[in-house]
Amino acid sequence: MHISSGRWVYSLFLALLTAFLWGILPVKLKQVLQVMDPVTVTWYRLMVSGGLLFAYLAVVKRLPSFKSLGRNGIALVLLSVGGLVGNYVFYLFGLQLLSPGTAQLVIQMGPILLLIGSVFIFKERFSLGQGIGLAVLLTGFGLFFNQRLEELLTSLSQYTAGVLITLLAAAVWTFYAMGQKQLLTVWNSVQVMMVIYLLCALLLTPWAQPMEALQLSPVQGWLLLACCLNTLVAYGAFAEALAHWEASRVSATLAITPLVTFVAVALAAWIWPEYVPKEEINGLGYAGAVIVVLGSALTALGPSILAGWRARRLRMAGQH
To answer: What is the pLDDT of residues 257-300, one digit of tens each?
Structure first.
């Protein structure tokens, strides 16, 4: 079982970096998806990131050995590969049907599902405070979708399909995250990501259409490259954060990702209105997005909050 190192300040920085990079990613992907299909975009992101990591590990002579994995390790690799491929592809199909902000808010269920999985797999606690946080999060989703709640619940429209596909992307992501966390007991985070990226790219190769990249405009070409590098840095930081901090606390930090996306969309729509449209969300919807973030953070940090309250009460009782 993987045990965190406890370097929480370093891990907090890495988790914040991950949240920022994941937050701006949908804005860039939305432009690339105007020309390229989701599978090909995913293939490029994985191939470029995996290739760069392979080159680095080859230079420093630290390529991973598969002999140390054993059957359980191979199963974890396959679980992580399937989870990440499914997450990338389903998320992009969902993003084609939704705005960047909506897609990023829905995918926020990924860290929550990771937290729930961590309770069962890694034996992390799920407290009353986390239950309250989960209720807050679900309330926030209700407020966010206030304009289209009836559509979501009564019809299978394009919008509803986008939300359901993105939820599926969040669900399969948890398999990747939990498998990756256990692989950190055998390899370091760079080795884990290199193997997962290249195997994912290999799996997608029969369906990829690399020549689609020639149809991109210069701006879209640079955005595709930025998406590839975003993948490399963001998931590398995420993997390293999990190596040094509990999955629940990493999840709490990642809760701010949707807010980063909404800010990024607002700025991009202001600077490049011809490329990036504004989010069609009312004030109640924005309030719901903030509540979702607060609920997500509270769910992840519930045990720490309750432990602090208990310690404070004990100290006050001791003073009397």
So the answer is: 888 999 899 898 898 888 888 888 888 999 999 998 888 877 76
CA-CA-CA-CA dihedral for 78, 176, 95, 214, to nearest 10: -50
Q: How far is the first Cα of the chain from the last one, in angstroms, to the nearest whole number?
A: 42
Residue type present at position 203 = L
Distance CA 234, CA 249 (A): 17
What DSSP line would sit under 176-244, residue for residue? HHHHHHHHTTTS-HHHHHHHHHHHHHHHHGGG--GGGGGGS-HHHHHHHHHHHHHHHHHHHHHHHHHHH
Can you give the length of the chain in residues?
320
Instruction: State which amino acid sits at residue 254.
Output: L
What's the pTM?
0.82
Per-residue pLDDT of 164-184, as tens digits, reads 999 999 999 888 888 887 887
Closest C-alpha to 191, from 66, 72, 74: 66
CA distances from 67 to 70, 71, 80, 105, 184 (A): 7, 10, 18, 40, 15
Q: Are 165 and 94 in contact (CB under 8 A)?
A: yes
> CA angle, 258 as apex, 26 and 307 as ends, to 5°?
145
Other Cβ atoms closer than 10 A to 210:
12
What is the residue-wise DSSP string for 268-298? HHHH-TTTSPPP---HHHHHHHHHHHHHHHH
Nearest to 231 by CA among 201, 210, 211: 201
User: How far is Cα 264 from Cα 241, in angstroms, rounded to an integer?
Assistant: 24
- Cβ–Cβ under 8 Å, residues 266 and 279: yes
* Crossing angle for the helix pair 247-254 and 8-32, to the nearest 10 degrees: 50
**Calpha distance 64→103 (Å, rounded):** 35
Write out the two tokens for 293.
């973030």
